[in-house]
């Protein structure tokens, strides 16, 4: 078997070529031997890379013929979809789509967190919010983003649902990038501080509906800021 790291590199190269349009969706995939030469890997490594992309719906096996490259709308693997969403030309749309997904996931997470959070969870949230405020005042965008992500991660963990944690992990890289874009605007950071305070207070109150509503309002504010101040 090829080494995992070499196979994953081949997966990334092949996926990037598909995303860039070098290999066109809807058309047949070139022979594995040809791809192996082009990407500088063994035929065995390329065969395994193709198999992994088949598992994500990027490449479709066609009986009696060469594999077909599927359009993005047919992709089923989160890693492949997220990689496409991060590509040039897709960033604005993907930022708004990510917010829609966050609205669905994080409002429910806040609702569960209000019911299940511990005193330790609240302490983590308070600490993250305090650091967000400090970094905002220092105009340290990178540190602000880090504390912001820790705040939301603490809510997910306070919700105490293992499947929820696993479901949001593939979105982490996109979250870091979009937060960096929005948090570079001081006005957006100021809005975030107010909204995070409301979310924390609602979770601390233990009233699930209030926590859900506070998170929904935070997501709406983030959407409005993204549209009016960034895009």
TrEMBL record:
SMART domains in alphabetical order: FCD, HTH_GNTR
Keywords attached to this entry: DNA-binding, Transcription, Transcription regulation
Single annotated GO MF: DNA-binding transcription factor activity
SUPFAM superfamilies: GntR ligand-binding domain-like, Winged helix' DNA-binding domain
Domain of life: Bacteria
InterPro entries for the chain: GntR_C, TF_FadR/GntR_C, Tscrpt_reg_HTH_GntR, WH-like_DNA-bd_sf, WH_DNA-bd_sf
Domain HTH gntR-type: start-end pairs: 4-72
Signal peptide limits: none
Protein name: Transcriptional regulator
Organism, scientific name: Agrococcus baldri
